[in-house]
Amino acid sequence: MSAIDIKKVKISNFSGMIPFSFRKLGDTYIVVNEYGNYVFLTEEEFVSLVENGPSALSRPAIKELTAQNMLFTKETAARAAERLRARFADAARATNLHIIVPTLRCNLRCVYCQAAAASGDDYETDMDIDTARAVVDTIFDAPTKLLSIEFQGGEPLLNWDTVKFIIEYAVELNKTKKRELRFNVVSNHLLMDDEKLDFLLEHNVVMCMSLDGPAYVHDKNRGITHDRAVEMYKKVYRRYKEVGAERLPSLIGTLSKHSMPYHKEIVDEYRSLNAGSIFVRPATTLGYAGRNWDKIGLSAEEFLDFYERMLDYIIELNLKGENFTETYAIYALCKIVAGFEPGYVDMKSPCGASIGQLAYNYNGDVYTCDEGRMLGHQGDHTFRVGKCGESSFEDLIMHRATKACAIASTLDTTPGCSECAYKPYCGICPVLNYYETGELSPNVFTTRRHTVNEGIIDILFKRLMIPEVGDIFIKWAKNYMDSSKRDIESSNNPEWDKAEKE
Amino acid sequence: MSKLFTEISFDTKLFSADALLGACHKFLAKCFVKLEHSGDGKRILVRLTAREGVSVDGIEEEFRAEALNYAVKQKISKGSAKIRDQIFHIVFNPERLNALGGQLQTELETKVDPDSVKLSARLEKLLEEIESEESLDYEDDPLGIAVPWEEKHGMPGDLLHPVDQLKRQAESNLINIETVKEIVDC
Q1: Tens digit of pLDDT for each residue in A138-147?
Q2: Spatial CB neighbours of B137, under 8 Å, sequence gap ≥ 6
Q3: A116, containing H or E segment
Q4: Do residues A83 and A113 share a domain?
Q5: Which among A160, A167, A268 has a CA at the least distance from the CA of A214?
Q6: What is the DSSP string of A342-380?
Q7: Residue at which a domain ends, from A21, A54, A89
Q8: Of A176, A387, A409, A445, which residue is 20 to 30 A from A432 by alpha carbon distance?
Q9: Domain edge (last residue) among A67, A89, A111
Q10: Cβ neighbours of B72 in A, within 8 Å
Q11: Same domain, A41 and A186
């Protein structure tokens, strides 16, 4: 930056430009417009741009700035508006992700459990059938075509009767409601048996299993369960494949301090199970994790170090011809390279609290999100927005906690974020902010998530500058977008459109 | 124990209070910050006091660089504010795009300083020249930088296939529907 002479930087230099911000990475300036298009400029080009305006740049540079919607023309304005519309389109739709906790009980005692699970015999934390019915009724109250119901826990299979009831009741209700219904179960699979598997397959339930890596990593986090879990996962995977299920089971992992040296081994474990992709997230400070933080927690810098090593290993595999992806990168890359909003609630502005997801506790309490629900379990119900059977969908959406989260997570009005080059790609979590700092809107520069998100996007941009890696990233984003587009198309249910109009 | 370790003075003609506040906000995790106007209002004095345990090595240079960042960003934001507003209007009302050219020109002519009108005109002229120069036709573009992203990678950039984008532009009367038909038929 020292090369810029601020005296030469005039406001009028930018009057023909689409609003933009910038960030310096090494010797390169990343110039990002408000709508997510980006260009890489050399220091010389960037200094010339800000000191003299775009017309002083070389013709190829001007052409590139135009192609990337940086210079104002009727066409670039139309494209920028389209991107902006796409970015906020989700905020105008009703909630479609509904997370249900059928029980807080769990058969594991993971060191980082943010759900603060109850013990296996604490049946008071099971959702009963009446509550389950009220939960489903509330979910169907959401005026949206796509309803995605996800079971989390505790271990959901421990309260199988309720899980089964919810699926059957939702399917029954849907005969008249005509929604596009999706079910997901996040489980450790240890209680899976043929009867459950048949039922889940029959109802097209997508399965997701927690796996932290090879046994010496997984078992340190989750107790000695790796071999059994993998055995069950293989069984489930085989059955889904045999019947030609549209969506095969997937894996999700959590990182703790124990995981740090094993980026290759964790990826290889996923590859050995034909996962095709990996999605690992750092443990958060919520729940039990907070109590064990010194032993298991990762600083933002530690996570980024792991992430960079893991991503480079995955890129290396791709350069050798293997098709293996990293999900966190895909979510960011969809926005960076294509202006496509993948709907990942943790990286959205505003975030998904209530408007993107709702979390239903075993007792029918409804929270803005799963993090809000976890905080509720620790005795703080700030993010409880209602109760099934008592609150309408409108009550949940109009609740002050919903509004507060939307305001607190809108980056355009967040100091430090509003002028950041990465604003179009990023997101903040008011619940974690509140938990970690006592404020919904703390100084973002003091938060862990800021460091993590900024670090991940830096890592991705550094690699986007390498043409062959950029091509891999574009392919990842393209494949994800294609499958999402297929989802959107397949969720076009004309009968529901008709019902909605009526 | 925390102690004052540096004072930096900024010319208010070059660095607005808002730009300096932005930089201060970023530094709050590392330092306690105090701002003071000089008596004549021509300078702002920033006093940085390191928080306990924070290394102060290079912090003054870091702060100066950050202040410069914010000052430039603020000028960009102010300079492009009208265009930001126009794009917001288009998001909510695509019809607005039709009237955009004339309306923006009027605003530039009447409200914005003459320099920006000149710049905008210069830019338009340059872009026209680029478009008309055979040597820079995109088919001859060796780096492919002029090829729209979605064509280059076969992806529906901005969510739409190029043909769909053309159709949408036609719906918004941006281009003639006959032109779209010709392109699609080709």
Answers
A1: 999 999 989 9
A2: none
A3: none
A4: no
A5: A268
A6: ---GGG-SS--BTTTEEEE-TTSEEESSHHHHHHHHTT-
A7: A89
A8: A387
A9: A89
A10: 4, 6, 9, 22, 50
A11: no
- A81: number of Cβ within 10 Å: 24
Distance (Å, whole) CA B83 – CA B91? 12
Give residue-wise pLDDT tens across range A194-219.
Answer: 999 999 999 999 999 989 999 999 99
A115/A262 same-domain check: yes
A35 and A73 together in one domain: yes
ipTM of the complex: 0.87
Residue A156 and residue A226 share a domain = yes
Q: How many CB pairs below 8 A link A and B? A: 183
pLDDT recorded at residue A109: 83
Helix (H) or strand (E) holding B151: helix B149-153
Judge whether A438 lies within some domain: no
- For residue B99, pLDDT beyond 70: no
Q: Which of A14, A48, A62, A478 to mutate to test the interface with B (most CBs of B within 10 A)?
A: A14
Residue at A334 is within a domain: no
Q: Are residues A373 and A281 in the same domain?
A: yes
How close A69 comes to chain B (CA, Å)? 10
Q: Which amino acid is at B165?
A: Q
In this structure, what token pair is assigned to residue A79?
């494209």
Q: Are residues A133 and A44 in the same domain?
A: no
List chain B residues with CB under 8 Å of A34: 84
Q: Give the pTM.
A: 0.84
Domain-wise residue ranges, chain B: 4-79, 148-186
Q: What is the CATH number of the domain that holds A174?
A: 3.20.20.70
Does residue A153 lie in a domain region? yes
Asked which of A6-20, A372-386, B148-162 is least confident by mean pLDDT, the reply is B148-162
* Record: contact A82-B160, CB cut-off 8 A: yes
CB A434 within 8 A of CB A404: no
CB contact under 8 A, A81 and B112: no
Nearest CA in chain A to B86: A77
In this predicted structure, what is the pLDDT of residue A91?
Answer: 76
Please judge whether B94 and A7 are an interchain contact, meaning their C-beta atoms are less than 8 angstroms apart: no
Question: Which positions in chain B touch A470 (Cβ < 8 Å)?
Answer: none
Nearest to A19 among B76, B91, B120 (CB): B76
Q: CA torsion angle for A407, A409, A410, A412 (degrees, to 10)? A: 120
Domain count across chain A: 2
Q: Is the pLDDT of residue A470 over 90?
A: yes
Q: What is the per-residue pLDDT across A125-169, written as a single tens digit (0 to 9) for each? A: 999 999 999 999 999 999 998 999 999 988 999 999 999 999 999
Q: What is the pLDDT of residues A269-324, one digit of tens each?
A: 999 999 999 998 888 777 777 777 888 888 999 999 999 999 999 999 999 999 99
Q: What is the mean pLDDT of residues A230-255?
A: 92
Q: Which of A15, A339, A478 sits opposite B158 (nearest CB)?
A: A339
Q: What is the CATH code of the structural domain delimited by B4-79?
A: 3.30.70.60
Question: Quick check: B122 and A55 CB within 8 A?
Answer: yes
Provide φ and ψ at A284, rounded to 5°: -100, 175
Domain that holds residue A23: 6-89
Average pLDDT over residues B21-28: 94
The pLDDT, as a whole number, for residue B126 is 64
